[in-house]
Amino acid sequence: VLWGIKKLNLALVLDNTGSMSSSSKMTNLKLAAHNLLGMLQTAAKTPGDVKVAIVPFATDVNVGTGYVNASWIDWEEWEAANGTCSNTTYKSKSSCESHSKVWTPSAHSVWNGCVYDRDQNNDVAATAPVAGAQATLFRAHQASNCPTAMVSLGYDWTALNAKIDAMTPAGNTNVTIGLAWGLQLLSPVEPFNAPAPANDLDKAIVMLTDGLNTQNRWSSSSSSIDARTTKVCDNIKTANIKLYTVRVIDGDVTLLKNCATKPSMY
User: Fold this and answer.
1) Contact 214, 173 (CB under 8 A)
2) Is residue 3 very low, low, confident or very high in pLDDT (cuts 50, 70, 90)?
3) In this model, does residue 146 exceed pLDDT 90?
4) How far apart are CA 134 and CA 149, in angstroms?
5) What burial class does residue 64 get, using C-beta atoms within 10 Å of its C-beta: 0-12 exposed, 13-18 middle, 19+ buried?
């Protein structure tokens, strides 16, 4: 008798914020993640049976500069904030043009790969981006604390382990965007086209954080950001994706326990 498991698509949504530098949290996160990857690699009876995505998050998620020409990146706000004015006193498009000067946006090649929350309610959903429908697009953002780039679903175990090693803690906490990208990477829609739901396929997200929500695109109010987190958690569960939440020393117990598929998965 051969023991087998279902195929698995797993997204690791991992807090890379500044507080993860304390109490050896990041060191232990990396150790745990390497151990998990090792177990999953061993469990895969056939290459590709287990695929893993990794989403390091802070206030933003870094999709990677390789997508600089992707049709699903929106540049309007980025170009308004990154460029030069014919009078160098003015540092944004609005202030430049309000003084009748000429604003020249920076080349997209200097973008660091970060995006922030999509327009609501796409910010908590796996809506497929549609060229020309700005609300569905991912907004480029030159975040000052841009985490290392995410990895989409795959089973290059060397690359996955290297991504864990590349993580560095910096910036504020936006659990919502980390979970939203975990959902996006597991969904059978553009731009990543994950496998469709199937009887022999489990989909899961493991989200780890050590802090309270502190900043998103619109607010630094924990309660308003928590409301967005609750919505994305509900959408993940509606999509029949198993959601595990891990709290490291600090964080909102009630929020994370309610987000998990069931209390025992917190």
Assistant:
1) yes
2) low
3) yes
4) 23
5) middle
